[in-house]
Design brief:
This protein is α/β, with parallel strands linked by helices. Helix content is 43%, strand content 21%. The longest helix has 17 residues, at 121-137.
Length: 228
């Protein structure tokens, strides 16, 4: 079972090396960059020859990377998120059926439990809520390193080039193809998004835009609102 790791980047020189080191060897790594002006591409070249340049937009970047990938399994990894040591075994076990044997339907993909690389009760609370949401509601976000069978990804339409909510929209569609599971293994993601805008403001903002999405507002309009 071959795995392709697809990482969208934009000015990630401070995070990318640690992320790539966590991936390790023996898998295809594809960097999809949308115009970095720092050392992102130079760092990437130390780990892979597959560096694709495309236009801005995480959905566009990940779709482009998927089209260039050769793996049976596609893993979409944020540039500021590190994988656990046995990440590959965790994915293979669940997709080959050696774990979760009680699950009656085909497992088509999933994600990892979330851990934020910062101290503080607020971050532990965010982690707990995110993992409960992912486990019981099936809402796995991009910072949890989404993995999916290649055939299921393309038959579902991929990320459809969406500029925002691309992960939520994709998970909703992929769940129609089979079971999507949360693994009992943690990825470690940067706390920068919460520190930049503030924990409360970021959390409320995320809930606000998620509510608008479920109310039927298009990702394109949400993108314009988000960056207004």
């Amino acid at each position: 079972m071959s795995i392709s790791v697809i990482i969208p980047t934009l000015n990630e020189e401070h995070n990318l090396e640690d992320t790539l080191k966590s991936v390790g060897q023996g898998v295809e790594i594809i960097i999809v960059d949308c115009g970095s002006r720092d050392a992102t591409r130079e760092i990437a070249r130390g780990f892979t020859e597959k560096i694709i340049i495309t236009e801005k937009g995480r959905g566009i970047q990940m779709d482009m990377g998927a089209r260039e990938a050769s793996g049976d399994i596609l893993l979409f990894l944020h540039a500021d998120t590190s994988l656990p040591e046995n990440w590959r075994g965790c994915i293979e076990n669940v997709l080959l059926g050696t774990d979760f044997k009680s699950v009656p339907t085909l497992v088509v993909g999933g994600g990892f439990s979330l851990k934020i690389d910062s101290k503080g009760f607020s971050f532990r609370l965010i982690e707990a809520v995110a993992n409960i949401r992912a486990k019981y509601l099936g809402l796995i976000y991009g910072d949890q390193a989404i993995f999916v069978r290649r055939d299921a990804f393309f038959s579902s339409g991929g990320f459809m080039g969406l500029p925002l909510m691309e992960d939520v929209d994709f998970i909703r569609r992929i769940r129609k193809k089979g079971k999507v599971l949360l693994l009992n293994a943690d990825v470690s993601t940067s706390s920068r998004q919460w520190q930049k805008k503030g924990i409360l403001k970021t959390t409320i903002g995320n809930l606000f835009f998620l509510s608008l999405y479920y109310a039927g507002v298009s990702p394109q309009r949400l993108y314009r609102l988000y960056y207004a």
